[in-house]
Design brief:
By secondary structure, the chain is α/β, with parallel strands linked by helices. It is built from nine helices and ten strands. This is p-loop containing nucleoside triphosphate hydrolase protein.
Length: 332
């Protein structure tokens, strides 16, 4: 149960991460009684970093709602840059994250390549040393039979292609039910945890690396290069099929040729997207330090950083039982 007596003066920073539609914003609203915007489709509502605060167990908690790498409106490179800017600035102010929650839908029939790649990026941002401050929270239990969810949970925790390596390095798994108590229980383990610098923070600040040269930047670049190779190979195969269809010059093969051409153009667009992603990632030069500050406004509005990049929202709505604050603004 949240407690508003004698909170610590400095808040514990807890980042909430995971793919679009997993329930990150809903989770924060359950914990704090806030009203951050929640998506009702696969389009992302968290295209900027949002923040809500509450008091729990006598500790001031700041929950940070981050965009997923499968964000509807932003490229992976741009999402990574937003996260990197936020982590860098907080670390330069002497702040470290007390915990990170990674959310995963237990209702997913299978964990596809994109989901696995997103989790690999997440682990590269955190690093092995910070895994002891990570909780993998599974959501959507109400959408699957209990035995099915338990079977998937065992598979996720026992296979290296999923969460096993993270768990071996100290991460733990928890289930989230759709209620306030269950959401609070996912936060309680962090109340007595010591903050830990993430690998990306040490790379950007202590080691002065540029974003493309961080572990996460290298991982994303490698995945994009693999996508580019796959697209080019598929396009080469389609060109051969198209040439064969053109040589036969009958009605059936003309229709086949149109289908092949449509597929070819689709792949061309995908390839252009990947090439643009790579270009954007390689352009994230850290020699120009971001000058903006992440600050929060009392009225629940938005304040852009000085360079017009990431914005944050300060949520002032609260439910009495949660102890969510509505104070005079906040600066990390």
């Amino acid at each position: 149960m949240a407690n508003s007596k004698n909170p610590s003066s400095q808040s514990k920073l807890i980042a909430i991460t995971g793919p679009t539609g997993v329930g990150k914003t809903t989770f924060i609203n359950l914990v704090t009684g806030s009203s951050l915007k929640v998506g009702t489709s696969l389009q992302s509502c968290t295209d900027k970093i949002q923040v809500a605060r509450c008091i729990m167990g006598g500790e001031l908690i700041t929950l940070i709602d981050t965009p997923g790498f499968d964000d509807t409106f932003k490229s992976q490179a741009d999402v990574l840059k937003d996260i990197a800017d936020f982590l860098e600035q907080t670390y330069e102010k002497g702040r470290k994250l007390t915990g990170v929650i990674y959310m995963h839908r237990i209702s997913d029939f299978r964990v596809g390549g994109i989901a696995r790649e997103n989790f690999r990026l997440f682990t590269k941002i955190c690093g092995d040393d910070a895994m002891k401050n990570v909780i993998i929270v599974t959501t959507m239990w109400e959408d699957v039979p209990e035995d099915v969810g338990e079977r998937r949970e065992r598979e996720l925790s026992s296979k290296p292609i999923f969460f096993k390596d993270a768990i071996d390095n100290g991460a733990r798994m928890m289930r989230l039910r759709h209620d306030h108590i269950s959401a609070e229980n996912a936060i309680i383990p962090f109340l007595r945890r010591a903050p830990e610098a993430l690998l990306m923070q040490r790379e950007l600040v202590d080691q002065r690396k540029q974003l493309p040269n961080t572990a996460a930047g290298i991982e994303l670049r490698s995945e994009l290069e693999e996508q580019k190779k796959r697209h080019r190979k598929e396009m080469q195969e389609l060109r051969r099929d198209r040439d064969d269809a053109m040589a036969k010059k009958d009605a059936v093969h003309r229709e086949e040729m149109r289908t092949i051409q449509d597929e070819y153009e689709k792949l061309q667009n995908q390839l252009r997207t990947v090439q643009e992603e790579l270009r954007r990632l390689k352009s994230k030069d850290r020699t120009q330090k971001p000058k903006g500050k992440y600050s929060l406004t009392r009225a629940g509005g938005m304040i852009p950083s000085n360079d017009g990049s990431t914005k944050v929202i300060y949520v002032t709505r609260y439910r009495r039982g949660s102890g969510c604050l509505s104070g005079d603004g906040f600066e990390l």
